[in-house]
Amino acid sequence: KILFKIINSTTLLLPQWREQVANTEFKDCVLPRNVATHWNSTYDMLAAFVEMKGPVLTFLECSSNGMSDYLLSNEEWEAIGRLVSALNISFCPLLK
Q1: Which pTM was predicted?
Q2: 30 close to 92: Cβ distance less than 8 angstroms
């Protein structure tokens, strides 16, 4: 929901997100979308989300963008990490 909301808010949230990551290693990164017809898009989206955890947390904690309701608990971050690990096991052998 978080990525969808940011990507689809091209006049409000997306510019704020780009400003947030402008001075980080993620400045040229595009947030991947989950696409039902692309089996690996869930993995790509979640892996990018975990990799960008720092900027994501900073962005969500900013009260001016109305995204604080989407803050994730430590347990939710851990669950996402486990899911990425599980999906990675399925994803990597197919690349060979």
Answers
A1: 0.65
A2: no
The total number of structural domains that make up the chain: 1
H or E element, residue 86: helix 74-91
Angle at 7 between CA 36 and CA 69, to 5 degrees: 100
- Find the helix packing angle between 53-61 and 13-21, rounded to 10°: 130
Q: Which domain holds residue 22?
A: 2-95
63 has a pLDDT exceeding 70 = no
Q: Judge whether 38 and 45 are in contact, CB under 8 Å.
A: no
66 sits in the region (left: phi over 0; alpha: psi -120 to 50; else beta) called left
pLDDT, position 61: 80
Q: How far apart are CA 87 and CA 72, in angstroms?
A: 20
Question: Which two tokens mark 64?
Answer: 């001016």
Q: Is 3 within 8 Å of 59 (Cβ atoms)?
A: no
